[in-house]
Amino acid sequence: MPDAIHIVIADDHNLFIEGLLLLLKGEPDIEIDAIANDVPQLLELLRKMVPDVILLDINMPGVSGLDALKSIRQYAPKTKVIMLSTYNEEHLIEKSKNYGANGYLLKNTNKDELIQSIKQINKGGTSFPKKATNNHSQFSEDGIFLSQFTLTKRENELLQLIKKSYTNHQIADYLNLSIYTVETHRKNIMQKLKLKTPVDLMRFIIQHNL
Fold first, then answer.
1. What is the mean pLDDT of residues 42-49?
2. In terms of pLDDT, which residue wins out, 179 or 140?
3. N or C terminus of the chain with fewer C-beta within 10 Å?
4. 149-207 to CATH, choices 1.10.3720.10, 1.10.10.10, 1.10.3470.10, 1.20.120.80
5. DSSP per-residue codes, 54-117
6. What is the pLDDT of residue 6?
7. What is the pLDDT of residues 186-209, one digit of tens each?
8. Where in the chain is the domain with CATH 1.10.10.10?
9. pLDDT tops 80 at residue 131
């Protein structure tokens, strides 16, 4: 349909995707062109098509939706992007705006609000929550990035302390662990990140802005 709003959905939860498809099914001026389950798949689609609107899950596996926004602006600068999120939090909404999102919708948004926002944004408008909390949820861009390396919760804690230049002894005192346990965790982190030296680890932290 040439005059329809052409949409790509990027989300890794099939049940949510099916729900979106049901909500948008039958809308005469909305057409779902494709679905991506992760960011690499989305970027591959954008090499072949230029949708009007992308409905993008903020919490994508491997690379967060927020990080994906930067790449989307390179591949499809004119495409409108609506972030989909379960987090009604001011810092995430502001980040979305700063990274170039045109809208931010909560995943419990009703059908009328969803369709109205899509149409409004497609015409050049924006749509962001009027009320947001100052809470900080467990959502973390760093956590999403690091999850691909299967670090444990404790290893993530160590990594954050290493980032602050804590020594092994300081980490042991801070986390109430033995120095041997800290050294073992540190060795496991190096192996999982495929790094060889402490300098490599600090370079990794700096390069990925963790």
1. 90
2. 179
3. N
4. 1.10.10.10
5. EEEESS-SSS-HHHHHHHHHHH-TTSEEEEEES--BHHHHHHHHHHT-SEEEETT--HHHHHHH
6. 95
7. 999 999 888 888 888 888 777 665
8. 149-207
9. no
